[in-house]
Design brief:
This protein has eight helices and 15 strands. By secondary structure, it is an alpha+beta fold. It has a seven-stranded mixed β-sheet, with helices on both faces. Strands 3, 10, 11 and 12 form a four-stranded antiparallel β-sheet that branches. The longest helix is centred in the middle third of the chain and has 29 residues. It is globular.
Length: about 350
């Protein structure tokens, strides 16, 4: 007999209506625009490796040709040169989640808990991926070499300015104009940019709504990017393919399990997956973590879990730290509950 462990949705989690009303099934207000923007895409080639044996995933990369031309004459043999390669390593994360309900609770309350679970499970995983991406980026910039090469203003934040933004873009070198494509900011920063008239709106043919852009990059608002009470925040600027990410569902990765005895009869919907995520151009630093501790290390956010794989110019990610006006910081809306404005800045950046 199957036994379902845990704390399903029972009657104590529900409301017994005194007057019958249709249930309103709430949806989490987190937008997941970070993921929906395309910054995080499931790589089918990488995903095909996740269910193979082992807890490390390898991503081989062929280096470009290098060296200078040789002198050609009839007294020296022509020397043949080789092409180098590099290997990026990622760690597979094995994750599961189960939501469930009791028969009695749904009967007495009139709720349709299974419908809510089935309809929202995918969105719940998307929110998990948003957190995974932010934790991965944080761990990447914990590496001093990467932080020096690919960030600007972090730790010495000043008011948001177009000039400093260009200085941040300089972290891409001479390929800045054709690599970076997506700018992700907290909505407080977006409001600051609107006040400074930095945003241009483009109306693509056939599109229902215009696209907000800055210096040719599409802008994504996502309040998963933190903003502090004093307006300190950052922008993440991504290029296409900046993140190596994949997820795969193993056999029996989706199970609906029923137990007629426990808690008077209950149903659990169980999902399992294997996922990997790291910034392209970086490696998991196996001297700082291992497969057994990786998830805990990633959640703690204090270790430099990644190192440059071969050339920091190949990292299609820049972090720009700055401040916005505290009037734009709204606790429980775009900032944590304990983030209270510390001053008046109706003009935006406390000018």
């Amino acid at each position: 007999m199957a036994v379902i462990n845990g704390n399903p949705t029972n009657f104590s989690n529900l409301i017994e209506p005194k007057v019958f009303l249709d249930w309103v099934y709430r949806q989490n207000t987190q937008t997941n625009r970070f993921v929906a923007s395309g910054v995080l895409k499931n790589d089918p080639i990488l995903g095909g490796r996740l269910l193979q044996p082992g807890r490390i995933v390898e991503i081989p990369a062929m280096n470009d040709l290098s060296g200078d031309a040789d002198e050609w004459n009839d007294t020296h043999d022509i020397q043949t040169n080789g092409v180098g390669s590099a290997m990026e390593y990622g760690i597979k994360m094995y994750q599961s989640k189960s939501f469930g309900n009791t028969d009695w609770g749904d009967l007495i309350s009139g709720a349709s808990t299974q419908q809510q679970i089935a309809n929202r499970f995918g969105n719940w995983w998307t929110r998990q991926d948003t957190g995974l991406l932010l934790n991965t980026v944080k761990a990447t910039f914990n590496n001093a070499d990467i932080a020096t090469a690919k960030s600007f203003g972090v730790g010495a934040e000043k008011e948001l300015s177009a000039a400093d933004f260009v200085k941040a873009l300089a972290r891409m070198g001479d390929v800045m104009d054709n690599t970076l494509s997506t700018l992700v900011v907290n909505s407080a920063a977006y409001s600051e940019m609107r006040e400074q008239q930095l945003i241009e709106y483009l109306q693509p043919a056939g599109a229902a709504t215009p696209i907000a852009t800055y210096q040719g990059m599409s802008i994504v608002q996502d309040d998963s990017i933190p903003v502090a009470s004093d307006g300190t925040t950052y922008a993440l600027i991504f290029g296409p393919g900046a993140i190596d990410y994949a997820t795969a569902t193993p056999n029996d990765g989706l199970v609906v399990q029923r137990d007629e005895f426990q808690k008077g009869g209950m149903v659990a919907i169980i999902q399992k997956r294997v996922v990997t995520c790291h910034v392209a151009g970086t490696n998991v630093d196996l001297t700082k973590t291992n497969a057994d501790t990786y998830l805990a290390d990633l959640a703690a956010g204090t270790k430099p879990l990644f190192a440059v794989s071969y050339d920091p110019r190949q990292i299609q990610l820049v972090k720009y730290g700055f401040k916005v006006g505290t009037d734009y910081v709204v606790p429980t809306i775009n900032a944590p509950k304990n983030a209270a404005s510390t001053g008046s800045s109706s003009t935006g950046s406390g000018k």
